[in-house]
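Quick illustration, no need to memorize.
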Amino acid sequence: MERLQKVIASSGYTSRRKAEELIKEGKVKVNGELVKTLGVKVNLSDDIEIAGVHLTAEKKEYYLLNKPRGVISSAHDDKGRKTVVDLIETTARIYPIGRLDYDTTGLIILTNDGSLAQRLAHPKAKVEKTYIAKLNKILTMEDFYKIKNGLVIEGRKVIPTRLKIRSKDKEKETSLIEIAIVEGRNHIIKKLFAYLGYDVLKLKRESYDFLTLGNLKSGEYRTLSLKEVKKLYR
């Protein structure tokens, strides 16, 4: 037995929060009976109907995408811009786990597994994400250690789990920095460097927990193996 809203979310129909709204609005029936109370538990064999549509268990799909620049990390965009979902050939109702900025590239996971998405997005998960940031200036050793020891950004301290200067281009006065964090706030990498007066010219996510881009080129994707999915659940 599972809570009704969890079953709806796990099916890939919509998020758990939206499922709760649908239930309270009286748009969900179980075995022909209207349900308007949260917390009702159902069997996977029960007939669940949402706004006249009978819910069928959707096969879970998991993808790892190398997101290109200029693509929205969303299932839909009201401005008609290309989204990460548009790059995946599937009929499943997939969506990205977390977000990468419009101009940020790199690794992002897409799935229709609501349980996994919620598990990974929760702050307690502390998923380590590694980025490569190209800065508009040479990062000084003084600022390097300030970041390494942690900076307070918008009232909360951010301490990288790993920080490394990959290269310095003295002629162009730029530097490539590898930084790994478990922080999940929007634009946090850019805000971290901006706090010390640096602009991030390019930003790429190279890894998500144990997952890496491997040989995937920009815009390419692959399915996750069952072993990888189980490891993400752990």
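The chain is about 20% helix and 30% strand.
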